[in-house]
Amino acid sequence: MSKDETIGDPRQTRRSFLAKSSLVGAAALLPLAKFVKSASAEEVDDQDTDIHKLQLVQSDKNILIAASIAEALAVTTYTNIINTSPFFTRLPDDDQGYLLAAVQEEMSHYALEVDATGKPSPYTEFFYPAEMFSDPQTTLNILVTLEDAFIAAYLVGVRHFSTANLRVTAARIMGIESDHRTLARVVAGDVSEQDGGPITQITGLQGVAEEADPPNNNGYERTQEWNSITQAVDALLPFVSAASAEKAGFDSSKSFQFEPFTPNLPSDLGDFISFKG
């Protein structure tokens, strides 16, 4: 027996255990690896990486068009918070940075969906509550409400899109909307005293005032129990229809125009690139 193989040497015992475990583990996983590879080959078309090459069924188009309305609304909302809300300039730099990045990200989502369907959003003018861009509490309530709706809408896409590529794309966008919901709740505590802050509670889509701390208060994203994209469209009606806006208590006398632009994402690594990521 060599010196390195001395019985009781904890280093040798650990090395031997790890080496044997690695070999046994790799052998045991071979059948699973083959199964996973087979399943992946069935689910994902590796050749189809271009959004323009999608073969969409009508239900796919319906979801994408509804999503484009939501993204046009999101762009309009973030743009007007940045450009017209007095409290924006008094937010800390990192909060302003979130809002500035979010408008670029939402515009990127919109552009992707329009590229897929070849059709722009059928709605380009939007309505809000009267104090939407002047009162921070109203602004954050509506912003979180919208992000709640966007999350649930993309989860409908995860349920019902016809291909794996589309389902994963919906999940990828939903993850960004979840970031936005959390970051909107972060802003609550940073609203200045001059603007009525800090804000301690925010009411989102479920109509319940929730503590803003902690901002990441979800263990699982909320589906709102939506199973159809028409439920998402119905939830957005007060923002897109003057009649529905008036019924919801919004200011139906003033609309805000969606103004598309070429997005500039904060990081190239976070761009869509392709279905492969």
Write up this protein.
By secondary structure, the protein is mainly α. It is built from seven helices and four strands, in the order H-H-H-E-H-H-E-E-H-H-E. The chain has helices at residues 10-43, 58-84, 93-117, 136-160, 164-188, 229-240, 242-247, and strands at 125-126, 201-203, 209-211, 256-257. The strands form two sheets. The protein has a two-stranded antiparallel sheet with strand order 1-4. Strands 2-3 form a two-stranded antiparallel ribbon. Residues 2-7 and 38-42 have low confidence and may be disordered.
How is this fold's topology laid out?
Layout: H1 10-43, H2 58-84, H3 93-117, E1 125-126, H4 136-160, H5 164-188, E2 201-203, E3 209-211, H6 229-240, H7 242-247, E4 256-257
Antiparallel strand pairs: 1-4, 2-3
